[in-house]
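Quick one, tokens below. Sequence please?
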């Protein structure tokens, strides 16, 4: 499954994954307003083997399939980092 990743220019460390490039109509209007402008950063194949740095790839794929989008929020300060998390390859 292809995913298109955008960063919010208003909310630091907040990323939006879309199932179709530039398909911002999938995002609810209140979400778009909170995130502000979105800048394309990455196109990635989300295969079952794919590991993501701060998100569970299976959850991202599920959200893309059911909603067409997934939002990755910044990490909570002081929260432990999952040991299985690996940088995106």
């Amino acid at each position: 499954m292809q995913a298109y990743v955008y960063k919010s220019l208003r909310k630091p460390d907040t990323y939006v994954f879309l199932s179709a490039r530039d398909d911002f109509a999938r995002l609810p209007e209140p979400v778009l307003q909170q995130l502000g402008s979105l800048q394309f950063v990455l196109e990635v194949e989300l295969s079952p083997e794919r590991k993501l740095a701060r998100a569970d790839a299976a959850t991202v794929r599920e959200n893309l399939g059911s909603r067409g989008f997934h939002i990755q929020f910044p990490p909570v300060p002081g929260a432990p980092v999952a040991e299985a998390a690996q940088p995106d390859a």
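The longest helix spans residues 57-66. Helices lie at 29-35, 57-66.
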